[in-house]
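User: Hey, quick favor. My workstation is busy. Could you predict this chain's structure for me?
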Amino acid sequence: MAAERMDGFLTYMFDKGGSDLHLLSNHIPKIRKSGNLVEIEGEGVIGPDEMEGVLQSICPDEKWKQYVENFDLDFAYEITGVARFRVNYMRTVDGMAAVMRTIPTEILTMEQLKLPDTFKDVVEQGSGLILVTGPTGSGKSTTLAAMINHINETQSKHIITIEDPLEFVHPNKESIIVQREVHDHTNSFNIALKGAMRADPDIVLVGEMRDPETIGLALSCAAMGLMVFGTLHTNNAPKTIDRIIGAFPAKEQPQIRAMLASTLRTIISQLLCKTTDGKRCASHEILLFHPALPGLIREGKLSSIRGVIEAGVKQGMKTMDMDLLRLYKEGRISGEEAYMKAAEKAAFQDFLPAGYFDEK
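Assistant: No problem, here it is.
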């Protein structure tokens, strides 16, 4: 019965067009729809004992042991005929809790996602490090899936993905795709990356570059001439580069700067914005390779990267604020949404409704 109850929550969310299910002990379950959290109709508060039963009902025994021991757990769950879901279990001051995100069964194309044409050039360059960054829930996995799918449809490559959890399942088309989930198919990102280096891949996707060893191995793969896709929870190119270098002890940083300078090809930073029709769309900052970029990385002149992006507009580069302005002028997002997501907010104040600050 508990599993049926969880499936009911998830099916309700899916049918209502929601993106996330939020479960918290001693609270009414909610779904996120068009960016807002709303209670599930007809549901009451879920007590701690009931919450434990609901969560355990869909969790494999081995993973439940991990959750009980570590208080955190990520895995994927599927309801046949409905959808796959990315599951995160946690413990809070109120007790057990979970957030479950819908993973579309269909991998959307770049065209369907309205991604810039520049993205096609990025995946066709053959080698180097390509990073897709942004906060949790910004759609990084969806964007990466579209990029891998484009390669799969147009190139004959050997692609290895290492994910935690495995979200989008890619059928082999022109390419051969080997997908591995951490804890199910390998014990860690590091072990899987070491294995990938011996498996004759053309492309490696690292679901998340979490620690120095994973980052170092990803850089080594890129230095070997592979194309390496990775993600970080950063909001722009300078912060991404700084995060990578800062993950290492000071004595190792010169070597990491040199490796990053020689392998970095692209940083795509992504945010999700509420649209004027109640949906959501992505806004991007794009840093592409430029002859000046390696020197700036080696010398630590990260503040100058913004100038590289602004000077590279004709080549397909853009800052996040440039893209937010485009979305506003196209009528896809409101002035308030553009202002809230902008880095330089003063440039967007004129787009706010009259009396906006008085109301706040």
